Amino acid sequence: MLPYDEYAPWLVWLIPLVGSVLVPIVGAINAKARNWFAVLISFIGAAYAISMIPQVLTLRGEARDLAVPWIPQIGLKAGVLLDPLSVFMANVASWIGSLIVLYSIGYMAHEEGLTRYYFFMLFFIGGMNGLVMANNFLQLFIFWEIVGLCSYALIGFWYKKDSASRAGIKAFLVTKTGDIMLLVGIFILFTTTGSFSFLDSKQAVEAGRIALPLLAAVSVLIFGGAIGKSAQFPLQIWLPDAMEGPTTVSALIHAATMVKAGVYLTARTFTLFAGVNEWLSTVIYIGGITALMTATIAIVAVDIKRVLAYSTISQLGLMITALGIGTQAGWFASQFHVMSHALFKALLFLCAGSVMHAVGTTDMREMGGLRRYMPITFATGAVGIFSLSGVPPFNGFWSKDLIVAAVYEEHMFIPLVLVFLTSLCTAAYGFRWLYMVFLGKESRHRGSHHLHESPYVMTIPLVILAVAAVVSGFLEEPFLQYLGIEHGAGLEAVPVGLSLTALVLGFVPAYLVYFRKSISSARFTTGALAPVHKLLSEGYYFDRAYYAVFLDGFPRLCNWAYRWIEITIIDRFNYAIAGTAQWFSQGLRPSHTGNLNVNMSAVLIGLAGFLILALFLIGW
Amino acid sequence: MIPLTYYLASALILYIVGMYCLAAKRNMIKLIIGIEILANAANLNFIALSAYGKPGEVDPLGHAFVIMSIVIGACVVAVALTIAVHAYRHYKTLDVRELRRLRW
Amino acid sequence: MAGITGYDMLLAVLVPAVVAPVCFVAGRKIGRVGNGLLATAAVAISTLLLAGSSGTVFSAGRSVENYGVWIGLFKLDAVFMQDFLSLTISLLIAGVSTLAAFYSIAYMSHEHNQEMYFTALLLFVSGMIGVVLSANLILFYLFWELMLIPSYFLIAYWGTGRPRVVGFKYFMFTHAGAASLISGILLTYSVTGTFNLLELSNLLNNVAPGILKAIMILMFIGFAVKLAVFPVHTWLPDAHAEAPTPISVLLSGVMIKTGAYAIVRMTLTLFPSELAKIAYGLSVLAVITMLWGGFMAFAQTDLKRMLAYSSVSQVGYILFGLTSLTALGLAGGLFNVITHGVAKGLLFMCAGAIIYATGIRDINKLGGLAGKMPITAVATLCGALSIAGTPPFGGFASEWMIFAGGFAAHYTILTSLAVAATIVTAGYYLRMIKRVFFGECPANLNGTKEAPLSMLLPISILTFLTVAFGIFAYAPLQVIYPAAEAVAKIFTGA
After folding, report:
1. How far apart are CA A569 and CA A553, in angstroms?
2. Which pLDDT tens digit goes with each residue over A470-480?
3. A47, B57, C152, C314: which has the fewest C-beta neighbours closer than 10 Å?
């Protein structure tokens, strides 16, 4: 055991957090030093993440809980949970994060506001590590919100662009809707069990101390947080717009790590809620519907990053579906897919960034034939697409096959259909992306941008990720052992057949339309399929519907309430009281004429009045 | 001796006359005369009651009050006539309605 | 008597009041900056004295200074008391007031008649500190009104918009509440024969429930008007939006919290049985206030008016925490008093900096200021996120405790609504930040410069505190939690 092991679970998130605060200070000294300082810090964090693996292996799948007092008055402790799942996610976040920060040196070289960028990148990596290492729900929630804050700040990085700021706010508010459900669920759990800790909650559930209806409610509420953060139906609208941020941000936050936080949470609470049928149904169907819906939208998207965004949502849906199956096999399949997806999606985003860096546009219709100018980018991009579509022997094939196998094993028909169709669409849009960007003729629309391969700082991470994408497919067995799972999911005939069928069925139309051009793509935008195309382009009108209610309807409601209730009723009521008092005094004013005769008359009347009163009192 | 009620009735009549004068007359000199009539009514009241308090005796306290009252009445008239003279010099009329400033 | 001088509390109350006429007399000679520094120093001395009394509070639970008989006929003693509850709030009052006084120095460079301003400011601060330190009901009422009068002048003579009308409205409204308060106080005296807070809790046990209820409601109305819960909140937007900015800081960040303090000190401590019966209704009222404040804030385009409605919304959170009657909820409510005081003070200071630099208050006419005023932008973001309940800021630390308390009190649906209300808060704050700081800078704002250093210093201090309260929540909770526990014990015991 190496001497620094003790503190690794803490340092893996403390170091990036502290490093982020130091970024402005280093930046004030020297800009280049600041950039490489950020890279250094992220790699140090990654080193600590790797150092935890030997520790976890000795635990053989059990968890180790370390805590220090944080708010002693209420007995609240800050803690870390050292178990295979948390260390795995920490490694994914740290390593991909470090590679992306390295890539940023080249990609963001000509931007301004880099201090802010590196601050938030490091803050994010620290927050993400803190999220996965947390040992209790409250701490998880705190880091959950912190990564949401970083996401808001980084999406809106180019704050002068109105669309970027709007996208940042949209991401923040939509995920906050999920966060609210999560918080309510956490608190109900806390009220029932008296503790925020994962292990305590697990004990409470196993001991049967929580009534089933309450547990069902809590489980769905906590899953609500995952829906928000992982952009599942019906909160999927924020992720495509989040592409307004720099591509490195999209790669890190919206592909590899933050959106996986929802999957992580569902995986973490799996042991708590796997016995609740409502939870399982909710999870599997939301995952399945999301996966298919967004895969279909990706087929018609024309922005290079938006395709990848929808693809991410779809793949996340697959991971969630796998968790919703309720078996160990499904759980394992989802985690394996987390790993492979993190690798190939980050790879694809970085490729997209490389292409955008060279071409200067994000519209795929203006690209084409870039294979000749950017060979490394093309090769790594092809690897990414093959993984995404599930071509053997890349890692995507193995992980998706595991998911299909897990669903098939449980004989769940509708989820199987959803997964099959999703794989089909995935292959279709994947190859469409590849053709539109890299293959075919050079687009006539392009200006005279000087095309060249990206600098080494950018291509090295691409290559590393591509190699990892290929190699990681074969790491199923070690991964199983690492997670301490007994059940092995080997290669079954039917699931493999289904995966390959979906791949071919998806590949063929893409090939025909884009590569061979035997079917014109214009046939889809006009003619009989035009309404379908419109529906998909508008994202099933979710955005329009939400905007109508929240961006249009809600402000109108507030303005109406302000004008008619606040001003007209409540304020007028106050002024009415004041007015009545004024009316009285104004009314009595004319009686003071200043005329002596009138005063004397008043005296007389008063005197007469008193006399009559006195007579009454005497008894007349 | 005449019954007390005659004196009291006269005092009451004088009182009413004085109040009426103050309430209805506009001329400042008339108002001053009205004040005097009121004062006389009160004085008459005092004298009458002091004579009829105990049969055969006259209470000197009542008479003492009346003498003081007459003196004070004289002072009041003096001051009031001064105000009237100055008001006449300022407003060129003896109408009391000109003195209206102390109102709302 | 312990503490630094032995007369800590009396001095903490009197030092600003005594320096006030000095400010007026010497003001013209030593100029705006000198006068401002004098005022800041006076309030800083109060802060130090109050901090000094914390030693006794921690060791003995409370610190009482009895200056003997004041009006013997009604058994009125001049008694000051500092326990955990008043320590929390008095430190907030004195601390934020010091920063507001310092901020005023730069702010008053655009204003007139600064000697009168600082005089009124010091009297205002003196009144506020006196309110939380008094242990005698009449003394409490005296300082309650002493808060009101200088603030009326401050709004009416240095305010914007229609200052006289707004000041008058503020005065009349709050004074009407105070009329209800004094009726309650006098009714208390008539049934118990004493005004002394320390003795009242025992004596009130023997009073008939009907009268207790009447007293509680009368006093609560007075506190509620000051705290600005719905529906008696309409004075707040006008007053806080039209007051000069440092005074908005004090009004929104500190003064309305004295209402919360009074609710805990009197309504919760003295009338537990009666309050427990209406606690649910009050929680509903609190949630309505939260949501109403949020909806109204959404409809505003004036920067300071939006912040004022946001204060109404946060008051709902504080009240919700207080009426949950659990230790966690009460601690959350009191902690929210602190964090909101700091964050709202910060936001008003930033708004003041923006108005000082650009002269514009309408958020639709502002834009792109992040490049021109970076420190203000970061500070505003920190303050806004804190109030919206985002970690790692202090607002989250206090709000989660409020929610936990609400759930512990089994108000599940109400608390879920309360949690949902944070989206509305986040919505209008992020919209404000986007309109003011992001986007392109309009041509007429190209020459905007960052706020002067004397404004940035209090802003930075408050930003630091907002973050610190979030991460190191145990530090303020050391003072707050014992107070909350003591009050919660009354309810679980009763």
Report:
1. 22
2. 888 888 777 77
3. B57
